[in-house]
Amino acid sequence: MSLLAYLVAVWLFVVGIYGVVTSRHLVHLVMCLSVAQASTYVLLLGIGYRKGGQAPIFGDIPTSTPVVDPVVQALALTDVVVGATVSALLLALAVQAHKRFGSVDPDELNALRG
Amino acid sequence: MALASLAVVVPLVTAALLAGTTSLHARRVADVVALTAAAATAGLCLALVTRSSDHAIVAWLGGWRPRGGVALGIDLYAEPLSAGLAGFAALLTVAGLLVAWHQVDTAGHLFHALVLTFLAGMVGFCLSGDLFTAFVFFELMSVSAYALAGFRVEERAPVEGSLSFAVTNSIGSLMLLVGIALIYGRTGALNLAQIGAALGGHSPDALVAVAFALVTCGFFVKAAIVPFHFWMADAYAVAPTSICLLFAGAMSELGLYGVARVYWTAFAGPLGPHAEALRDVLLVLGLATALLGGVMCAAQRHLKRLAAFATVAHMGILLCGIALLSDAGLAGVAVFVVGDGLVKASLFVSVGALEHRRGSVDEAALYGRGRELKALGTVFAIAGLALAALPPFGPFLGRAMIEDAATKEGLGWIAPILVVASALVGGGVLRVVRTVFLGRGAVPPRHPACREAVAEETDLARGRTPSPTIATGTTLLVLGLAWGLVPGLIDAATHAAARFTDHAGYAASVLRGTAASAPAPAGEAPTAAAWLYGLASGVLAVAFALLRTMPEGPLRALHSGRIGDYVAWTAVGAAAIASVFALTLA
């Protein structure tokens, strides 16, 4: 189980970066970045997983119950917030790029060179 | 205790207040409130520097102190070097806000709110003693920086520059986060001292080496180390002047600060036996960055890009200082950061003033048009000489300390390379003095990126430079020059650096609350060789400035402006560095 999680994380990271490098559409590029970001969620949750562990909420389970690591869940949650902020900003910039350049192809943004 | 928390809270709460009152459009009130908050933050950080001069200040948020030597809570850790860097960022923020006094477009109070959020991120990052908290502050700083770089969003270039800035730096943040996750998986700790305690005593394996590589690469993207530097010129060329000086003077340096902090608190134990291999890798990266930045700087015709590549070159010099992994090297880095940061900030302010007066940042379009601007030309010339590390100014002292530290480690051969890098940077700036302000020598070819008309950044007529801009630029330059002459600076920096690199002392003061006995090594004044190197780079810079064109080879073509290319370089660079670390450090 845990090996699978790590393999999925690596795959998501690689495929996300590949998408960013080859993207021809800014919205597609932002989505690829989100895919790469998703690899960190999987990695974090994979690291905190415990076989047979329950959700770390001790309201209705005895404190001796094995639970998965709550710290990585907090980290993943923070990570989601950070990722959403970056995506929102990038999408806003993509809209502006469309207005200014009349294109959303990153290769056709050509105001800066060398 | 509360000082450290206040230094983060003051700018953050003020930013929220300003953002909440943006509909009031009380521009001057916003200016004054933001300036007061930034100045107060600077004051708090400087108070932290003096109070922590004997023993570090550790503030446990919410009172979650370590039990039995195990840290579960989150701490802010202030010592002279970290609080000093935070204070320097706050001082530059004050300068940036003064330059923005006459900026036309501030979108109500939102510009001020963003600047203060940016500052809160930088201060929090400097003071954080917890790796994940540091990451969150790092992201807060980064996201505000993306928005500030693209602030003039109604123009084409800022949109493009901000996009490549945001995408490449997000990839860097992802690498940083993956590295943090791997470290947590291995040690079960996020507190830097706790990580150091968990890793110490074991020889590092491939996982630790790769995690360290990922964290380092994540920080290197922000510090614009080759091959992660491509975004920097694009972002700096488009940001408002008031923001450029913050980017160049503080933000890039924070990337290298992150590497130094994480290495000396968490990894110095396990990686200590492999310090030689680590030093070689970092030195190669630092020298490559210094030379590439220097060549690209000297070859630039776009003045803001020229100043941006000057920053890249100096990041390389700073990385060389850190790569020595010695107290003396780090002391030189600390002195160089402030001296060079002040002079570079004043250079950016001067470029902004020139842009305002003559409506262009293209050297070709400006040829000879600066003859009447004698004061501005003088500032450019002095800044060029100071950036070339001519004695006895601030940048010289820092570089001289790095060179002497390198000689002490038997690496004296890097000094001439640093001389060439500084001379290329100084030569680039001095050539601008020759062409723009003196109108002599060959007319440079036009830069394609300068074709666009420059939009008016300030609300004053072209006839005069805003007086806050003149005052700020001059003050920054004078401070940068005087920095090299501050008495007792070398001793203080050496002492602070010894505290920063004291791996065991850091762990003791965080985990057990014992005041570390501070070793007090005496600093050494620059040797005769360092003075000669300083003079040589000054002379060489003048020689470079007289050259008709700078040979640049195929380097410029690599800086294609394509986001895909930049990300590909980032991925390849990170893979290469991770492989080398896994092979040599594990």
Characterize the structure shown.
The complex is a heterodimer of chains A (about 110) and B (about 575). Chain A is mainly alpha-helical and about 110 residues long. Chain A has one domain (about 1-55, about 65-110): Helix Hairpins (Orthogonal Bundle), CATH 1.10.287.3510. Chain A has helices spanning about 1-20, 25-50, 70-100. The radius of gyration of chain A is 19 Å and the shape is elongated. The N and C termini of chain A lie far apart (about 45 Å). The mean pLDDT of chain A is about 90. Chain B has one domain (about 1-445, about 460-585). Chain B is built from 22 helices and two strands. In chain B, strands 1-2 form a two-stranded antiparallel sheet. The interface of A and B includes residues 36, 37, 47, 89 and 106 of A.
Query: What characterizes the major β-sheet of chain A?
Result: none
The SSE order of chain A reads: HHH
Structural class of the secondary structure composition of chain A?
mainly alpha
Helix content of chain A: 55-70%
What name does the CATH topology of chain A carry?
A: Helix Hairpins
What characterizes the major β-sheet of chain B? 2 strands, antiparallel
The fraction of residues assigned to DSSP E strands of chain A is under 5%
Assembly state (oligomeric): heterodimer
| Distance, first to last CA of chain A | 47 Å
